[in-house]
Design a protein that fits this description.
3 copies of one chain form a homotrimer.
Chain A lengths: L3 H4 L20 H15 L16 E6 L4 H13 L3 E5 L12 H10 L4 E6 L4 H8 L5 E7 L5 H15 L6 E5 L6 H12 L4 E5 L9 H5 L2 E3 L2 H4 L5 E4 L15 H8 L3 H4 L7 E3 L12 H4 L6 H34 L1
Helix pairs in contact in A: 2-6, 2-13, 3-13, 6-7, 6-13
Chain lengths: ~325, ~325, ~325
């Protein structure tokens, strides 16, 4: 969807993270560096004063063209724990209403010396577009673009898997749900394969399964839930967009739960120590029942906590690269 | 409305304030402790740097399911003066729209390591429900639940009365208006009685007076304004919800003002040094005329100022109890 | 529009800035002081930690009755760079909906010890009204009132002109567009004349040109764009409110651009080193084409950056005057 040549534009010449747009094109080493860095930030949430001064005096703008309390809030908290100043901009209701283009919005906020933009947009490629046009002193973090990518969600999921399973190299991970429309699934598949997970399985009704996905991502395709999660170490349930229910792509909620909803009974097919994940918010009784959602094997709330540490890692790495650039410019001028 | 056994759940085993949900069940000593603590915070607003570091690094989330600029703003300012980080979450328009339950919202924000929730909700019992399900490290402050309780409003009113009258033990206090639907009146009656006010009077049209309120709260009931405020030391006017005007419970605005609106002429029935209060925002010409609202005996704006000091007191007491808990857990692990 | 006697109410007895309401009545010395002060703040945006502690512990409330992401954001960033706490109040949707008057809103926020109000309102004179009724410890900054005044916009434009042209005393400045409805134009004309610009030209269709403007402001009137910008040093394009297009005051967008839109071809009439300005957001293809907007002579994004420095200057000057007042009160009490 996004041209190949642009994928690597998130790294600077030294291979450091400048933007965080997609998992595509990132090395295993870099993904592990993000996970390790996030590990160091987990403790900050338990401190009496939940703050580190890494981004003090920096301005981070949340540009959410699609509303999302959960994702915006975790980015806001991550930024505040890094001691940054946060601007929440609900663009849909103001500037765009006056007819301003996305590029004008970017240029104007750059002119206000905003250091980082966290962007969510319904159109695939928005974060890439902004990174391509951003001034060198600005970083873009993709918080979800259309059906394309949601890389911080994927990384917090990887972080959660590593905390529970230790090692990626012998895992079976199943992803269940609306693969077709899911930017989360796309980013998860890329991250799992990059980190060396040998067995990634995709489970969806035929109407929600993209064509040729096996070759594209090196995954295995299933249409039956019990078969797909057999002996899996990790089962990731995707959120169903209820608005698709009436679109002929999906059966009724009842029917969907009957075929693809996770229950304790069904979960017996997976390994006894299976880890159950969901990006939230859950539709209880559609993707899974409450017994599973609130059960011992569910790590759904841990995913939320881990999201802050992972976002702190990504944001501080991008800002750190900015500082390096600023120093080297300073030195070459000296 | 809220079962008795839950009322005391706002205190920890040592009797310290863990949550602040209702006046019910709180001792006179604890209410006086809140008032004394608030006294210490009044000076902060007059400092050049209006801040104390008591809650530095803590995250306080405003969860307002009903909008209220005034109450939300005073809580936000109180939190910022305590050096906390504040999250403003307008839940109605986001998470709930995606079908998330209240409990899921609570769990998710807890997972983000929010330390305190300030909650306003149209349903009675919401704050209690959240406190009952909250993790031990989290405090809930009730900013108004349905017709049930608005305890910080009652405490700021008590604070204002004490500042003007010195002592509660010989006062006559009249509360005028829509007692039936008022969480403010309910919390005020409880606080006044707990603090030892001997004469609490309730004045309302028959359609807005709850049954058996005399026995329930130990108050005296009046239907005539002049009679009710005779020789009163304090007159508290309640806000009329204009939307009730067309509901057959209330006469027209004109008629209401004619019967229950406070004027200088009417106020002569009260003591010459009577104090006039209102929780705001005032409907001028309905609950009272502007001469009274802006007159010498009105302390309505002082109530607003005092609201910040009282909220700082309640918030810092709850957070202090959290810190004690964290320390004792630390010690028992050491 | 605003009575003469009130214009000077923005200065205290010593001639210091207490409020910032309008350019009218301000001396050349004071305008230059603002520009010089802003010059000192330009560097703050380039520091690693973009903060100075001048307003630490102060509370600045953004009271926007008209929404404006750009202006509100630059005021918010200016306040945060001065280390103030910022309250964003969207008044239209809350307090006023409950029937509260503007004066009650002011009184209530004053009671919360807010130190400064940044006010935007559709009615001319709102900021003056608030300043007239504000308590002595509070400052009002006008962020745009009706068709009357937008003084911080004018000052950031003056700042931008001085940075590019050095000196005001021999400049030709042309202002193009809907002069009739523009608070920006009104403030710009006053500022340019006060700062000694000898040749200020106003270019507009007859339907959008106020009567007797030549005498009132000492400007020259043109109805032809090319003629009006001939040999100009600076051309300021005003934003067209698209909603006026259908009101018979304006021709179609196409027709407007044909007659008054700035193009590279047209710009050849001005001086070769002409500076092109616009308060933003631009309607590309109406006020100017993209070649001009993004061209070498456009300083539109610099205006945005300069807006923060100029707002920091105005805000810190008003707060500084407050501090002086507080000290002298303290001394007289000692």
């Amino acid at each position: 969807m996004i041209p190949k040549s642009q994928e690597s534009s998130q790294l600077d010449a030294q291979g450091n993270l400048k933007h965080f747009l997609t998992i595509e094109g990132l090395s295993r080493e870099l993904l592990v560096e993000i996970l390790d860095k996030a590990e160091g930030f987990v403790g900050v949430a338990r401190q009496a004063v939940k703050k580190v001064p890494l981004c003090r005096g920096k301005v981070i703008a949340n540009l959410f063209f699609e509303t999302s309390t959960r994702t915006r809030t975790t980015f806001e908290l991550a930024a505040k724990r890094l001691s940054a100043d946060v601007l929440n901009l609900n663009i849909s209701t103001s500037a765009t209403a006056k007819g301003e283009t996305l590029l004008d919005t970017l240029r104007n906020l750059e002119a206000m010396h905003v250091d980082m933009f966290v962007v969510r947009h319904a159109s695939s490629g928005t974060a890439h577009f902004m990174a391509r046009h951003a001034n060198p002193h600005v970083s873009i973090v993709n918080a979800g673009d259309g059906r394309h990518s949601h890389p911080t969600q994927a990384m917090l999921d990887m972080f959660t898997i590593r905390r529970h399973k230790g090692d990626f190299s012998s895992l079976s991970v199943a992803i269940v749900g609306d693969i077709m429309h899911s930017r989360v699934a796309r980013s998860q598949m890329l991250a799992l394969k990059t980190l060396g997970v040998p067995d990634v399985r995709i489970i969806a009704p035929r109407t929600l399964m993209p064509a040729r996905i096996e070759e594209a991502f090196g995954v295995r395709v299933y249409h039956d839930l019990t078969e797909g999660i057999r002996d899996a170490d990790v089962v990731i349930m995707l959120r169903i967009q209820r608005e698709r229910m009436n679109s002929a792509l999906l059966p009724s909620e009842h029917e969907y739960f009957h075929l693809y909803g996770l229950t304790e009974a069904r979960l017996t097919a997976a390994r006894p120590d299976v880890t159950v994940m969901h990006p939230g918010p859950i539709n209880r009784g559609i993707e899974m029942d409450s017994q599973v959602a609130d059960g011992e094997r569910s790590v759904i709330l841990e995913q939320v906590s881990n999201g802050i540490a992972v976002r702190m890692a990504v944001m501080s790495m991008c800002i750190g690269t900015q500082n390096l650039r600023a120093q080297s410019i300073g030195e070459s001028h000296a």
